[in-house]
Amino acid sequence: MLNIFKRNKSADSPLPEEENKEKTGFFKRLTQGLAKTRSRFTSGIANLILGKKTLDKDVLELIETQLLTADIGVSATEQLIQSLTQKLARNELSDSQAALTSLQTEMKNILLPCQIPLTLQEDKKPYVILVVGINGSGKTTTIGKMAKHLQAAGKKVMLAAGDTFRAAAVEQLQVWGDRNDIPVIAQQPGADTAAVIYDALESAKARAIDVLIADTAGRLHTQTNLMEELKKVKRVITKLDPSAPHETLLVLDASIGQNALNQAQQFHQAIGLTGLAITKLDGTAKGGIIFAIAKQLNIPIRFIGVGEGIDDLRTFDADEFVTALFD
Ligand SMILES: Nc1nc2c(ncn2[C@@H]2O[C@H](COP(=O)(O)OP(=O)(O)OP(=O)(O)O)[C@@H](O)[C@H]2O)c(=O)[nH]1
Ligand SMILES: [Mg+2]
Predict the structure, then answer these.
(1) What is the spatial distance between Cα 130 and Cα 169, in angstroms, rounded to a whole number?
(2) Residue ranges in the chain modelled with pLDDT below 70
(3) Please, which of 16, 45, 114, 126 could form a disulfide with 212 given CB 3.0 to 4.6 Å?
């Protein structure tokens, strides 16, 4: 099994220093990217807690209000407040720093069950990743980044231009594929998406491709059309490989806040998701939504995106995320 964004610990694994440098680089971008969420959400709470000598009921109420206005949702807020209340009652919070640390730990606890990285199973070949999401959420960008990481890890990657609704979408993927030496299977705009992806899978099998990543449309004439089309894609490719798709990845734009939850629920009900990529965490103050997503959806968060560059998409790490939120 290969975690696609972590290099193999084999002969070609990087020196520890190199790995550290890489981590520092991403961590810095993550910290910078989360600046707006920090100023709306965590900085205020940290200041509130550290500004008091000890935690009491009044402070807890203030914290609760701040949490509720930070997109993290009622249920995650309840978990955090309950945990602090219980520790307070057991005299486990000796000072304000202990209270803050305790809050951070509980925040990590909310995210941890969703920290399940995407791993390729070698016996599934090609490993089929179906990428879905509404238009503009970052699907094509995310596909590009995943493809390059996989290619760098020595995998043979192929893309399927399943977004046949937008004429420019096919071309966009083709140009990108040509430039990066990654084959793209496409048909003319307006072609049947399921047929394009079926053809791509057939071709990927013939060419011993390791990973096939399928792009899909974000918008059709109606939302019902879109869901029906995605269901059809799943049905059709099962004819070639009963276990495919191996990953149905929803790309969610974090900057839409609470709407991300409804969106994810709709897709999940219609086609069954196996993973999430949460993009555009940079430049939004609504990054707290990730706690609501983790708490309410319980779908693995595979990746987070903090920018448009190739290195701005990373495997989700709960500890790193919370640390960056308070950095
Ligand atoms: N700041 C920022 N921008 C991003 C991120 N991910 C994607 N984008 C940008 O968001 C815009 C839309 O991204 P696309 O990848 O084209 O989105 P899409 O889901 O394929 O959109 P459609 O093809 O229209 O359905 C582009 O300008 C991307 O560069 C991110 O993590 N941060
Ligand atoms: Mg696209």
Answers:
(1) 16
(2) 1-24, 221
(3) 126
